[in-house]
Structure formats: C-alpha cells, structure tokens
Design brief:
This protein is an alpha/beta fold. The protein has nine helices and eight strands. It has helices at 23-32, 47-61, 74-80, 94-101, 114-123, 147-155, 173-178, 188-191, 196-204, and strands at 9-12, 37-40, 68-71, 84-87, 106-111, 127-130, 162-165, 183-186. Helix 4 (94-101) links the parallel strand 4 (84-87) and strand 5 (106-111). Helix 1 (23-32) packs across helix 9 and helix 2 (47-61) packs across helix 3 (74-80). It is globular, with a radius of gyration of 16 Å. Keywords: Magnesium, Metal-binding, Thiamine biosynthesis, Transferase. Its cofactor is Mg(2+). It is an enzyme of class 2 (transferase).
Length: 214
Amino acid sequence: MKPIIDYRLYLVTDRSQSRGRSNVEVVTAAIDGGVCCVQLREKDCSTRQFLREARELMALLQPRNIPLIINDRLDIALAVGAAGVHLGQNDLPLREARRLGGDRLIIGVSAESIEDAIAAEAEGADYLGLSPVFATATKKDHAPPLGLNGVAAIRARTGLPLVAIGGINAGNGAAVLAAGADGIAVVSAIVAAADPTHAARELHRLCRPDSRLP
C-alpha cells in the first residue's frame, strides 16, 4: 500500500546552499517549522555518499512519519526503503520506474508544460512537480517559467496533486497556492535561510489544510 503524503510544504535539499550545514541539520530544523515531505537531491556526489545521505535522512524522518522522496535515483530509493522517487523529463521513464519499484512506490514527475502533465497522469504518476513556476538560479537548465497562469492551466487539466517549485518563497507562495497548486516545494527559501525553522514556519502558514492526497 502506498503511503499517504501531505505535499503542502515540500523541502528539496541542496547542500551547496546550506551554509556548511549537513542535510540532517537543515532537515531537522525545517521539519520543526512544519515541512511535511522531504526530497533528497544530490547532483554532485558518489552513489555511496548519496546512499549514506539517504540512510541518515530515513533514520531522522521515518520515526516522525515524514516521507522521504529520492530525486532521480530509483536504486537509492529502493535501497533505503524511501517513500518514493521523483523523476525529471530526462530521467528513467515512469513506466520503467513503476515496473521496477512496484505499486508501493510514490512516483512524482516534473511537468514543464500541460503536455508533460497529461502524459505523466496517463502513465500513472502519483503527483506532479510543476517546474519552474518562477525563474530560479537553483536549477540552471530549467524550462521557461510557467507563471501563475501556467499553474492554473495545468490545474484545469489534471486531478493529480500539484507541487509547484521554482523561485517560490514566503512572498509569492500564497499566490501559487491560489492558482491551483496543492503544495509548494522550496530549496533556497529554507536551505539557505539563516534560521530554517523560522523560514519553514513562515511558509507553512500559507498552506491550505485541504490539499489533495493520493
């Protein structure tokens, strides 16, 4: 059985922005502020280091019933028993991930357009990561920003939970949710903050209590 995930405030890790703090330190502070779901994203480390990072976060999150999603790497997600994996448009195809991971695994897919969203839903995605909503320096190779109108347009075409990411912060998060997103995913707004707990708490105040669940 798949876990039920609260997508309202979704943290994506990035050690390059963490002010020298470990993933565990940042995530511990962030969940104290209300983060509901954590994605481990590691672009520049070895497989063994990625595995260590994932195990450390599982040890932190599992007792708190907070799901861990692994970015890109299905092998890491399966090795540590993570709740799910998040796939980009150039990653392992969703159907192959489902075949290997089974029905228990939550699979999120990045959607950069209405066409991406429709295709991902048809193939069995559990949620969509709308990316990017606004211009962001966190990811260099992103598609043109969707904007609020893009979020609304995708909302009108799918019933899947929508998690919006890209340039989202406490100043614009409410507008993103009003446009139809069920949750907001953030990187620098929490990871780079001097006080990740306070930053997460400010973002959590924006989140509706009635987000769609799988």
